[in-house]
Amino acid sequence: MAFSMHAPPSVAGCGMVAIWFRLTYKANQSSQSNLIRRKMSDSILRKYEEDLHVYQSFSAAVSALIDQLLRLEGIQIHSINHRCKTLVSLKGKVGKKQHYQQLDEITDLAGVRLITHYEDDVDRVAKIIEAEFTVDSENSIDKRAAMDPDKFGYLSLHYVVSLNGERSALRENHSYAGLKAEIQIRSILQHSWAEIEHDTGYKSEVEVPRHIRRRFSRLAGLLEIADREFIDIRKELAAYSKEVAEKIERSVSSSPDNHSDPLPLDKITILNFLSHDPLIAEFDSALAARLGANLADTIILGSRDISRLTKLGIKDLSELHIALHQCQDLIMKRIEQLYAEWGGKVDFNIQHGTSMHLLMHALIAKQIPKELREDFLLESGYGSKPSFLADLEALVHS
């Protein structure tokens, strides 16, 4: 029997060898895993680079479709933008979250962001998205509901969607089969918070220094309150506009001096007056017919018109109504002046409510002395064109 010339290894020595083998095995496994992940990452990046033009077209198509759907529903929003993830951003995402094995597992390569004017419009837009797209519920999140009430952060609604079966079947959408887009919906104030939060570099509460955290919380609360206040203001304005319209409709058949409940001059009252007063409509039609122009449906109301009326002694709709009846002859003379200057010479539209401006011209000629008219016109933003001054003088002295 042969014997080894070396002493048998000690128990401690055997243990060290075993540990060494285990560490070497794990290192080899880790190295192989890293190699596999790098290959997967490289494969994902190459595939995305090849298909980037398709994702760009897809994000633009989704954005255009949403914009059209919102218009059909009469929903006005602040903005809608689309984008595709850059290769640099995708590389960082794949490197950070190493569980991705293929490109179609990543759901935010194409993106659309909608900014609404009001917080409640977020839900109105959401209903359209849910009705018109196939929603990936597993990857969609309502951060408004997910956030604890005692925490702060930006609020947003995120959908991951694809085209529904009906739209996917369209020939022009065949290249978008299986593609997903992330849709972000938030209000202007929610968007402001997100942008400022991104600019400061603090994306979660725990990252914010403790002594500043309370101020962040107060600010987040104020923005939420502001969002709700804007909604309430919008509702009050709508209710006020409806009330004004009803009062004006009841009063149009009254005599000019029988307005027991005069309404103050503001944008809502004047626009409703111009929409409902029969004498305004009569003068507008007369002006359009005399000039051979078209009468447009849009209403003209300049930013200075209320202050001009106030300077001319008109403080409410009752006084505007009375002045309109008292100046009928001067308004008709002004129409003839405009015919002499423009009749048959140009093709244009007359906006509804233009006759209120003719009323103001008549009041300037009637109330403002000749020597003060130029200064009044300059102060009121009319300018001091000599021909206009001559026309005003001719209104009262011809």
TrEMBL record:
One GO-annotated biological process of the protein:
guanosine tetraphosphate metabolic process
Under Pfam families, the record lists: RelA_SpoT
Q: Signal sequence span per UniProt?
A: none
Which parts of the sequence belong to the RelA/SpoT domain?
Answer: 82-208
User: What InterPro entries does the entry give?
Assistant: NT_sf, RelA_SpoT
Q: Which residues form a coiled coil?
A: none
What is the name of this protein? RelA/SpoT domain-containing protein
Q: What is the lineage of its organism?
A: Bacteria, Pseudomonadati, Pseudomonadota, Gammaproteobacteria, Pseudomonadales
